[in-house]
Amino acid sequence: MTRDRNLAPTGAANPESTFDLLRELVSHLREKRTELREEWARRITESRLLTAMTREEIFAEATTVYDNYVAVLETGSVEALQAYARDLSERIIPRGVETQEVLGIVLLLRDVLARSLFKKYQLDFNLLNRVLDAYEPAANRIANTVAVGFVQERERIIRQQQEAIRELSTPVLRVRERLLILPIIGLIDPQRARQLTEQLLRGIRENRGKVAVMDITGVPAIDSAIANRLVQTVEAARLLGATVIVTGLSPEIAQTLVTIGVDLSKMNTVGDLQGGIELAERVLGYRVIPAEEGVPRSH
Amino acid sequence: MAVPILKQGHYLIASIQAALSDKDLVQLRDDLADLVGRHRARGVIIDVTALDVLDSFATRTLRAIAYMTKLRGAETVIVGIQPDVALSMVQLGLTLEDVFTALDLEEGLSFLNERLQMDGRHGS
Predict the structure, then answer these.
(1) Residue A212: is its pLDDT beyond 90?
(2) Alpha-carbon distance B64 to B59, whole Å?
(3) How many Å from the N-terminal Cα to the C-terminal Cα in chain B?
(4) Beta carbons of A213 and A276 less than 8 angstroms apart
(5) Coil, strand, or helix at residue A263?
(6) Is the pTM of this model over 0.80?
(7) The domain defined by B5-115 carries CATH number 3.40.30.10
(8) Which residues in B have their CB inside 8 Å of a CB on A?
């Protein structure tokens, strides 16, 4: 500890000196702006980071990040950088930029700048040490801020998408008078299963549904809890006076259901959605035969 | 509270208006068994729209009514089970097997018409 203090006064021990050093650092980085920025952009391309972006875009972003970086070193406030990191993430996430790339470029910048500091202060080891002491915590904080900003933005997008999927996930559609279809795409988790049951029962009630075709072609797999839940849904629908026809059971799901021994005897199953709708129409059609007979044929 | 039972053509309609005690349910069962014979009814509709819960006793009694009226020559259809009620029933394993159900009174009537071929168009 004593040695540390002699060699390199920390910020707490000697705020004046750290502040001055950072000032000096900032003016150095400002001076070398063009050179270092180009060096950084070159190393980004070399390391094959940000391959989703063009060279010009990388250079433009690099310029902004560089200026933000220097500004943070100067003011010590990461707020502007945080906002920029969020904004940047918003722009580059849809283009498929990965977390390690963002982290990689920020660390590269840190290295590029550190190198330039080495070069500048190589003759005075003590001073170099002090400069690095001032520089490193700030640089790490910046890397941290950008990475966290990126990850948070990603998480926000994921949450948003989950929300959107949840809302879209279980539409109950009326295709004919009294005939509903319920196309299910994607994995069914317990929450979605619950939502599906509620939507279907409500849909039957509201649309006076008599037959509902539940198509699970788009469901990759099913476990026993979900399978039982589906059976319950079918039974509940029957209590409301509606028949549910399940269509599109994949070979895997059929096998799973047989293996786990779910009782499917109460379920009407048809191979595909078309067959399901045809069966549903037959079930309904036999109720509407008189009306159909009454319609004059056009040919 | 006793359940009013209305006669409509060949059908009896029992419209439950409020939550029933077990005693009321038994009363309903006995009344229906009696009235089916007396009116020579061909169909019975029990409307449970007003009920927000159907417990195991109620379910069992409804099933008993359906079987009993069947033996006495009338089909029974339960109408108006609410979505929430239906869901909690299946979760409790009360599924009213072999008992006909329909969405509402209108559906129940058209079901019986079809089932019993009473519809004017079908003749018989």
Answers:
(1) yes
(2) 9
(3) 39
(4) yes
(5) coil
(6) no
(7) no
(8) 78-79, 81-83, 85-87, 89-91, 95-96, 101-104, 107-108, 110-111, 114, 121
